[in-house]
Design brief:
heterodimer; A: mainly alpha; 6 helices; B: mainly alpha; 8 strands
């Protein structure tokens, strides 16, 4: 039956059962990932973000929530231009992290 | 001395060693050529008979292999040290042969066929034992032998205290390299003593030393002696390494003498821990087959190209590092299909086309300055990426993903061609390098804004004031070392102010530390490099640091005690309306 509206699907993530392999692997090789304050500077400057959904801030969030498939799809848009790394106020080596995710 | 004796068992170690080295070199030569991709091999054969490359081959074979011109230029003391040993050794071998064929000591002695060839093989090396020389030859032999020993003395001093000869850091060697070096150092004193005293033990020691040297040669850095000749031929054939361990790269690996000149030159060496990430060690790791370490070093390198610039053998370590990066398999591949729908606001016209690039978008003051300059000069121009464009593809190439960079290169090419322009002006040297090397933009002149502004000033279109600010110019790696754009920016700056010199300039300029080439360097390590580079630029206490790269600008601004400006900003402030 169509009421003309519906309930949005639940975005609930069960943190006890998510798969954090990629995120944990990244944390090991790039400990600076922990210093991210999610300010969004990376997203604001992203060259690919101009045309697509690409956003490193969200990418990190996805990995922290175990949404690896979504993250892997998003990262394909990246042009590796490195602007995110330059503007990061925490000095996180974002380009290296992006490369590490695709390995 | 007895001229009847034509053989003594002590020559055998030398003969054995020499036979081994020659066999090894022939096998190695065949291996390198067989490993070349088919097209490259064709290029190589062709280059040997093309007059231009053949001439370059001859010039460099003499200049580099025999006279070591590049080391002399870099550091005369090291130049003398190396020439004394290498050229001196070459000369005593040559003179030995000349004596054999002019003095004819074997005349009247019954040696035939194979035996004669065999005798000719070792006779010049032990000449004094078997025959007497004429006074002129005796003088020449002693002269060159003493020259070699003087070179060895410098080498010993260098080993004990390298700073005396102007080298801060030297390559750390393993057991084999240390041992062969000791063998090399002792060969000539032994020979001198043997010749002067004729004590049999020293003739034996001399010969055994030669055996040790020859047998260890293929497994140590001294392999550069025979390999460099092949490397010079391959280099002039215009080949790029396709595999970090095979073919052309293999010839380069064996040509690296581990001299360590690149260690002091590398900007990363400001931190002692990072001096292990320099090209000398990279080549060593490749040689030892340590793939993981080679990969790590390749990804740490900033690709500034200074090691290639100072290398006395001209080893293209940056290219090998790129092929090492490309050898890594990636699980996820990029998907840039979204680029298809992007179009540009630029209309079809023959106006100058300005492409700011990602980095300039981050430093909008450069874009504003460029707009003002072009307007003031009365140039008709249009922007390709005023509201955000796509990346030029160089960062992707730097990560070794050649195929994936192609999507961006194709899209940009399409957009530029659509605009119908004949001149493309870029503000970012990173873009400039990739546009020059990878894009096929026939009929379109590609200029960096330093060249463009220089042209505008010289043609009188742009009128500028001269003030009395002292500027120092930093050469961005991808503009200076890569394309030799040294004079244009300096001429522009001389028109608007006073230009003072940095400590290291032009091809020796130090990378700002912000390079996109490196993946692994942390912000702290980068800051150390930046500080060192800034100190170098502040050598003559300039009022402002001027650069021509938005990335250098951003990087220096973090650490510089004085104002850092792009050349476009400096010119903009001096425009006469």
């Amino acid at each position: 039956m169509d009421f003309g509206f519906c309930l949005s699907p639940s975005s609930h993530v069960k943190m006890d059962s998510v798969d954090l392999t990629t995120f944990n692997r990244l944390k090991e090789t790039n400990p600076d990932i922990n210093t991210c304050i999610a300010c969004g500077s990376c997203t604001a400057t992203c060259t690919a973000g101009n045309f697509t959904e690409m956003s490193f801030r969200r990418l990190l969030l996805m990995l922290q929530r175990g949404k690896e498939d979504e993250a892997k799809k998003m990262i394909q848009r990246c042009m590796l231009c490195g602007k995110c790394t330059l503007v990061c106020p925490r000095g996180i080596n974002i380009r290296k992290i992006l490369l590490d995710i695709t390995r | 001395m007895n001229s009847q004796i034509i053989f003594h068992p002590f020559v055998l170690p030398f003969v054995l060693g020499m036979a081994f080295v020659l066999t090894y070199c022939v096998v190695g030569l065949i291996r390198v050529i067989a490993q070349l991709p088919k097209d490259d091999r064709k290029k190589f054969w062709r280059s040997l008979v093309t007059p231009k490359t053949a001439w370059a081959n001859i010039r460099d074979l003499f200049g580099d292999c025999l006279f070591h011109v590049k080391i002399w230029k870099r550091n005369p003391v090291l130049g003398y040290m190396h020439s004394a040993i290498a050229f001196g050794w070459f000369m005593i071998i040559v003179i030995g042969h000349i004596m054999l064929f002019t003095l004819k000591p074997l005349q009247g002695v019954e040696v035939e066929g194979m035996a004669r060839t065999f005798t000719n093989f070792y006779y010049p090396i032990f000449y004094k034992f078997f025959a007497t020389e004429t006074p002129v030859f005796a003088f020449l032999m002693d002269f060159f032998l003493l020259m070699i020993i003087s070179g060895i003395l410098i080498a010993v001093v260098k080993k004990i205290h390298s700073k005396i000869v102007g080298v801060k850091r030297v390559t750390k060697f393993g057991f084999a390299d240390n041992m062969i070096r000791f063998a090399l150092w002792t060969i000539f004193p032994f020979r001198l003593i043997a010749e002067k005293t004729n004590i049999m033990a020293f003739w034996w020691l001399y010969s055994i030393d030669l055996l040790i040297f020859m047998c260890m040669l293929p497994f140590t850095r001294y392999m550069h002696i025979p390999t460099e000749a092949l490397f010079i031929l391959l280099r002039h054939a215009g080949i790029k390494p396709s595999d970090p361990r095979k073919g052309y790269a293999l010839a380069q690996i064996y040509s690296c003498p581990s001299c360590g000149l690149c260690i002091d030159a590398c900007p990363m060496s400001v931190n002692d821990k990072n001096s292990g990430n320099t090209s000398a060690y990279f080549m060593k790791k490749l040689r030892n087959g340590d793939k993981e370490e080679a990969q790590r070093i390749a990804e740490t390198c900033m690709q500034c190209g200074k090691c290639v610039e100072v290398c006395p053998v001209s080893i293209e370590s940056c290219d090998i590092k790129m092929s090492q990066r490309a050898a890594v398999p990636y699980e996820i591949h990029s998907d840039h299909s979204y680029l298809d729908v992007i179009s540009t606001e630029a209309e079809k016209s023959s106006k100058v086309l300005y492409f700011a690039g990602c980095m300039t978008q981050l430093t909008p003051k450069i874009m504003r300055a460029m707009k003002k300059i072009m307007t003031a000069a009365g140039e008709e121009y249009q922007f390709l990426d005023e509201n955000g464009g796509i990346c030029c593809g160089r960062p992707m190439l730097l990560s070794g993903k050649t195929a994936e960079a192609q999507a961006m290169i194709e899209k940009n090419t399409e957009l530029i061609k659509q605009s119908g322009t004949t001149k493309l002006v870029l503000s970012c040297p990173i873009c400039y390098k990739v546009f020059k090397e990878e894009y096929h933009l026939e009929g379109i002149e590609i200029q960096h804004h330093t060249q463009y502004i220089d042209e505008l000033v010289k043609s009188g279109k742009l009128k500028v004031n001269k003030n009395d600010v002292n500027y120092v110019y930093h050469d961005p790696c991808e503009l200076g070392r890569a394309f030799g754009v040294y004079d244009e920016p300096r001429e522009v700056l001389e028109n608007v102010g006073n230009l003072c010199k940095a400590k290291s300039e032009k091809e020796l300029s130090i990378c700002c530390g912000g390079s996109l080439g490196s993946f692994n360097l942390t912000q702290k390590e980068r800051d150390e490099i930046t500080e060192n580079s800034v100190n170098d630029l502040m050598f003559n206490n300039p009022d402002e640091i001027v650069t021509a790269c938005p990335l250098c600008l951003k990087t220096f601004a973090r650490k510089s005690p004085v104002k850092v400006k792009d050349i476009a900003e400096v010119v903009e402030s001096q425009i006469i309306n």
